Amino acid sequence: MPIPPSTIGCDLLFYHLNKLFKEQFAVALRLNDPSGQDRFESVTNLYFRQCHGALLLTDMTNPESLERLEQYWYPRLKQLSVNPVEVILVCTKLDLFEKQEPVYREAYLRRVEQFATKHQIPIVHVSAYRGDNIEYLFKRMIIQIMENDEIIDPLVAQALSCVKQKPVKKTSPCCL
């Protein structure tokens, strides 16, 4: 699996889910990466207000990243989001983590499990370098969102209202 280039900002990803659901769905994902830097705080606040799903990343080789996620990013997401939000805790750099000392790995996994259990968040371990669980991660997020009626029902209603709108009749031969 080729590794996509890193981005700062957002990308639009279309994902076809005909194998995951009885009906065929085309899902558009907008991925926003605020890169974890405070200088993007105002943009991040906007992302949090509009999101329906959040992938919270922690670097498994850096315990401070989990601490920052626990003390800053997760509380901010909960505080700023106006929509129901599906969350997945993504433990990154699995390939490097596997090379760490067993004592470190056990302690880190215990902390991750405690955080995830406390907030009822699923965990996915990934390696972007090897491509481990990347596709699974996105499929899982899409499924979680699509199975959450609090998220999907308003979106479906909004989409149907756009489709059912009557076309505007032209009153003049000019273009509008």
UniProtKB/TrEMBL annotation:
InterPro entries: P-loop_NTPase, Rab, Small_GTPase. Keywords: GTP-binding, Nucleotide-binding. The keyword Cytoplasm does not apply. SUPFAM superfamilies: P-loop containing nucleoside triphosphate hydrolases. It holds the Pfam family Ras. PANTHER family: RAS-RELATED PROTEIN RAB (PTHR47977). This is Uncharacterized protein. It comes from Adineta ricciae.
